[in-house]
Design a protein that fits this description.
InterPro entries: MCP, MCP_dom_sf, MCP_transmembrane, Mito_Metabolite_Transporter. By secondary structure, the protein is mainly α. The chain contains 11 helices and no strands. The chain has helices at residues 2-35, 37-45, 48-82, 95-105, 115-146, 153-183, 198-209, 218-243, 250-281, 295-305, 315-339.
Length: 341
């Protein structure tokens, strides 16, 4: 009994010592922060936890900045994809006509409908995509250096594809909410959901359709993300290699390669983006059935009823959205990486 009491007392004394040391350390950090805030901030940034978290934080921040700039273009792209659904002919809107229609129905700020969902998507999707990619590359880089070689193109491509697919799966609920909010204005006024925010949209979708509905269109979303990352990575690398011997400055080489990569990323991913939009926008009809049973069914019905070229409707708008978004994201992420290294 005495032995047990002694052990308990020893543990209590040890805990007291640890608590006092922690309190002293806290006071020391507080004093350092008070005397030299810059040094304290640098010290915090270089803690192991922050070094691991920074790629994710910087990536998400960069994506949110880019989305704030590109949101109106994304809004127009979604409206173009949903116009004339189910008919081979149907209306043939242009980016200008869609913009006029949106403004005529409300106000200029309606072009930013779904911005909260777009920002949430970037906070989740781009945070995960760039964070995973950076983490994968560091691991592969360490392994390659250990083996006395450089990282191969296939390893870079594999990292990009994997990071894009994982991030797309995690970010699908926010992407779904974004599509629902942007397409809501196409419905008759009496049928509109009039979502107040991304939280309101997700909660109402879960109540009426179940939590599983958050991952509607997840398959094409993941495939689209992988196709997008493949187009950006493979063609950016190839274009930059081909432009190395030209008279263009390094900055212009990077911008030109980004534009070329943006084209191929758009070309490969737009059909999947189109199907993703259709699947995420759909709702059950009076008979309780959904218009499409999945990605393959949607592809088949669009080809049969609307023609294969319908997948590329809004390509110019999609490209104008993809290329600047990628460039802004990379520039901001690079700058954030520079100031936090």
């Amino acid at each position: 009994m005495s032995s047990t009491v002694d052990q308990a007392k020893a543990k209590a004394d040890q805990a007291t010592v640890v608590a006092k040391e922690a309190a002293a350390k806290t006071q020391e950090l507080a004093q350092t922060a008070k005397e030299d805030p810059k040094a304290a901030a640098q010290g915090f940034i270089h803690t192991p936890f922050m070094r691991a978290a920074l790629p994710f934080i910087n990536g998400g921040t960069a994506g949110m900045v880019a989305t704030s700039c590109i949101q109106p273009i994304d809004m127009i792209k979604v409206r173009l994809q949903l116009a004339g659904e189910g008919t081979a002919g149907g209306p043939k809107p242009t980016p200008i006509s869609v913009t006029r229609e949106v403004i005529a129905q409300g106000k200029v700020l309606d072009l930013y409908t779904g911005l909260s969902a777009g920002l949430l998507r970037q906070a989740v999707y781009t945070t995960a995509r760039l964070g995973f990619f950076d983490t994968f590359m560091k691991t592969l880089g360490a392994r390659a250096e250990k083996n006395g070689r450089k990282i191969t193109f296939y390893e870079r491509a594999g990292s990009g594809l994997t990071a894009g697919g994982l991030a797309a799966m995690v970010g699908n609920p926010a992407d779904l909410a974004l599509i629902r909010m942007q397409s809501d204005g196409l419905k008759p006024k009496g049928e509109r959901a009039n979502y107040k925010s991304v939280v309101d949209a997700l909660s109402r979708i879960a109540k009426s359709e179940g939590i599983g509905a958050w991952w509607a269109g997840a398959y094409p979303t993941v495939v689209r993300a992988m196709a997008l990352n493949f187009g950006q990575l493979a063609f950016f690398s190839e274009a930059k290699s081909q432009l190395t011997d030209t008279s263009l400055s390094p900055r212009m080489q990077t911008l030109s390669a980004s534009a070329i990569a943006g084209f191929f990323a758009s070309f490969f991913s737009l059909p999947f983006d189109f199907v993703k939009t259709r699947l995420q926008k759909q709702s059950r009809g009076a008979d309780g059935k959904l218009p499409y049973n999945g990605m393959v069914d949607c592809f088949q019905k669009v080809i049969r009823n609307e023609g294969p070229l319908r997948f590329y409707r809004g390509f110019s708008t999609y490209y104008v959205r993809i290329a600047p978004h990628a460039m802004i994201t990379l520039i901001v992420a690079d700058y954030l990486g520079f100031i936090t290294k």
